[in-house]
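Box 3.1 A note on notation
Throughout this textbook, protein chains are presented in two layers. The first layer is the amino acid sequence; the second is a token string describing backbone geometry. Keep the layers aligned when reading.
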Amino acid sequence: MPASAGWHYATQRMNQFHGETLSWELKDGCIELALHRAPANEIGLPTLAELEQFVAAHETLQHTAHALIIHSTVKAGFSAGADLRDLYAQANAMGFANAAPQVRDFLKRIHAVMNAIDGSPLTTIAAVHGVCFGGGFELALTCDLIIADKLARFCFPELRLGLIPGFGGIPRLRRDLGNALVRDLLLTGRSLNAARAQAVGLVSQLVGEGDALKVARFTAEQVKKFDRTTSAAAKRFIKPIPYAELEQEIEIFCDLFTRPATEAGLRKFVESTDKQPYLP
């Protein structure tokens, strides 16, 4: 096989992927990344591994695309956040007091993924419905635009577990919105409905139930009209990545994780018999 033919075949393979937790496809210059891990797109090691595959493919796909849409095919919503059951099981097996190095490694990997999406030269759009909590909220915050249907809800529930958000959410939210709202979300654990989220500037477009992906596709078509180099330059100017604060967040999270209060909070979550224990 000629070298050029091999490169073309490899590129075609990068254009689409279907995994255990997510899939993606490049079509007409737009990458659509779909989350599909039931019941609520919890982000654990399987999702992280496939997100890392996506980031590797993105290095090539970004040269032929103009936009990236992240959405969910799961009825419950965009994402309920980190896979807390998996996190608890791993920490419990080795002892919470000894778990900080493993937790730090996981966070550094997820931060690398989030930073890659945040820093993408493409215009990135989160099409959100239903629950968008914790780590799922943090994934949405890496995107340039959040388009939400009217039933979407946003929340950082981590303090109930003895933790702070660990996937980069607070530095990114502080970058985008006022400190009063950041403190309210972080310290109360309350959720924002979609209308309130639009009113405070978190959501760029509020749409009808079930219409977020459709409107995101319309928006991606609009973006296609503009010069990619100009769009990427504008994005770098208005959306700096707060690397120092992100590193600080990892260390605070790891320090808190080894405390008995965190172990108790996670155990309570894991042992809950509620159908949707992630809801406030």
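Residues 212 and 218 are 10 Å apart (CA to CA). The first helix runs from residue 3 to 14.
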